[in-house]
Amino acid sequence: MVRTLLLLLLTSFCASVAYAQVTLNQTDDFQDGTTQEWRIGGAGNATNGPINVADAGPSGLGDNCLQYTSLGGSGVASKMVFYSQNQQWSGDFTSEGIDQINMDVNVQTNDLNLRIAMQGTNGTRICTTNAISVAANGTWSNVTFPISATDFTVVSGGGDAASVLSGVFTVRILSSSSPTWDLPDIIAATIQVDNITASSSLSIADLESNSTEFTISPNPSKNKLNVFLPLNEDMNIEVFDILGKRVYKGILTQMSSSVNVSNWKSGVYLVRVYNDKISQTKRFVKQ
């Protein structure tokens, strides 16, 4: 009976994979050796776009990161801008409680004025009003972009920032002296980014009062599964594969815990977290 129920749940989750959207605490950590679909536009995407660099992340050996070099001048790759239209960064940021994007950055050659720009499914484009200046000193720093509706300037289209945040289609990381979509800096510079995270500015207390569901990230993931609990109490965790076989069992004693999944087979899993009062199940994809 339990196995049948798990298979039914898994079928339901699998059917919704194509409609996956941005989730709170998701992270692009580039440990899978790819760009995780961050790219530049135009015909030069394949040859001039971002690349995955091994052992260059903020943790050094074993830590991959994304690297993009804008060339200045004219044509493809002349501007400091790259974007994602991956389903992982599309969807309703507001309903997920995401009001900031956090990342590690390392800038070389020329200083950058970094901003987040978004295009909604309604065609409206917005860009953060205030830039974060990052010096080209070749060292890693952690930056946080507030992305509430009041943090953006509408740069084109008839909608407002709130409508974009409830239906995001594209996310851009760019450098510009003023809010823009089409006119980022034409500049020769290299930027490395890592651990791009959809996060919340809410405190632990706020999260406890507003949510009773656990969250997982990154999802999908190649090496680790981070589990975030909304309540500060011990919980049991079980993970089942596509056949209903339990592959992991443990006890979560902290609000934030990690499970090593590097040896698991690629595929879809069900993560069940429970105690004597509640039981919740979420889908997890192992790359």
Write a concise keyword list for the protein shown above.
287 residues, mainly beta, Immunoglobulin-like, Jelly Rolls, 2 domains, 7-stranded antiparallel beta sheet, 6-stranded antiparallel beta sheet, 41% strand, globular
Summed up, what is this model?
The protein has 287 residues and is mostly beta strands. It is built from 4 helices and 20 strands. 10% of the residues lie in helices and 41% in strands.
Mean pLDDT: 86
Shape: globular
Strand/helix succession: HEEHEEEEEEEEEHEEHEEEEEEE
CATH architecture of the largest domain: Sandwich
Beta percentage is: 35-45%
Radius of gyration (Å)? 20 Å
Structural class: mainly beta
CATH superfamily of the largest domain: Galactose-binding domain-like
State the name of the first-level CATH class of the largest domain: Mainly Beta
Q: Which sheet architecture does the biggest sheet show? A: 7 strands, antiparallel
- Domains (count): 2
Low confidence ranges: 4-19, 203-210
Distance between the termini: 29 Å
Q: What percent of the residues sit in helical stretches (DSSP H or I)?
A: 10-25%
β-strand number: 20
The DSSP helix count reads 4
CATH topology of the largest domain: Jelly Rolls
